[in-house]
Amino acid sequence: MTDTGVPGEDRSVVPGAVPNAEPPVVDSTTSADTRNDDVVADAIEDDAQASARGKLGWLSITVAIIFGLFYVYAFFVAISDIVDSSSASNAPWGFLIAALLVPVVVFVAAFLVGLRRNVFGKALIFILGLVVVAALTITLNVFAVAMIPVGIAF
Amino acid sequence: MTETAGSTPKYPVIPEAPVAESNSTSRVLLVGYGILAGIFVLYAIGWALGLSRQTHIANLPPASALSQFMTIITAGLAIASGPLWFASVFILTRKNRTFVKLAWQVLGVVLLVPWIFIVPPVGSGVN
């Protein structure tokens, strides 16, 4: 590979060197490392440029999906609470439906607020959204349980 | 000043830095951040105390491992919600104007009220 690749490039650096001399091992590993770092940095940079234009890079989409799973969990817990309460004649429907809407609304809000930020900003905003979902969900369930003691944790 | 009049100054006199126009707004911001930080610390205490009072949760039918795990995560996030909001908004609004910074912080004050501390717990006889 060294003899068929770019001819004379390595030889020009060290004129008297043996033509077929292999590059030192340390050199090859460090270059591989920097290449990996470059891939990550490039991905973040590409994503940041896409975000600056108001578009979504694959990294941003991945982050949105991963954090979205937690919002989806909160959404399904709300559905589960509604199903559990459906037999009760006096279920606190307002709070139950509000708990259903909270994860959706907060995810959309977090998505929109973070639209033009880089991937770290997006992740931070999604975490902040999850914090809000946690607080609001607990609060809604506290009010629901305070009105009618149905078996809901949160 | 301790320097007596007429004595030659030992060091070159550095003119005072021009007073920035944003001096008053930065003072507002500093005071605002102080108040907000205090509120969010109180929120954390409120969430922790409020959640610890919810003893009825222990009497619920046993839940799945995932549900138990997520309940703990949710409770942890709720306790940390105030300080997390303060720190995150502080970072995210670094380049924004004072009003925008404080507005986002106030939104957290509104959203993250520990009602669980204010509403009497189930089984306390109040409800």
List the secondary-structure elements of chain A in sequence, H or E: HHHHH
How many strands, which pairing sense, and closed or not: the largest β-sheet of chain B?
none
Q: Per the principal axes of the C-alpha atoms, what is the gross shape of chain B?
A: elongated
Major sheet characteristics of chain A: none
According to DSSP, the number of beta strands of chain B is 0
The helix tally of chain A amounts to 5
Q: Specify the overall morphology of chain A.
A: elongated
Rg measurement of chain B, Å: 24 Å
Low-confidence stretches of chain B: none
Number of helices of chain B: 4
Distance between the termini of chain B: 66 Å
Q: Whole-number average pLDDT of chain A?
A: 78
Oligomeric state of the chains present here: heterodimer
Description:
The complex is a heterodimer of chains A (154) and B (127). Chain A is an all-alpha fold. Chain A has a domain of 87 residues. Chain A contains five helices and no strands. In chain A, helix 3 runs antiparallel to helix 4. The radius of gyration of chain A is 27 Å and the shape is elongated. With 127 residues, chain B is mostly helical. Chain B has a domain of 74 residues. In chain B, helix 1 packs antiparallel against helix 2, helix 1 packs parallel to helix 3 and helix 2 runs antiparallel to helix 3. Chains A and B meet through helix 5 of A and helix 1 and helix 2 of B.
Topology overview:
The complex is a heterodimer of chains A (154) and B (127).
Chain A lengths: L8 H5 L11 H28 L5 H28 L7 H21 L5 H29 L7
Helix pairs in contact in A: 3-4, 3-5, 4-5
Chain B lengths: L22 H30 L12 H28 L5 H14 L3 H4 L9
Helix pairs in contact in B: 1-2, 1-3, 2-3
Which features would summarize this protein structure in a list?
heterodimer; A: 154 residues; mainly alpha; 5 helices; B: 127 residues
Task: Summarize the entry for a quick read.
Chain A has 154 residues and is mainly alpha-helical.
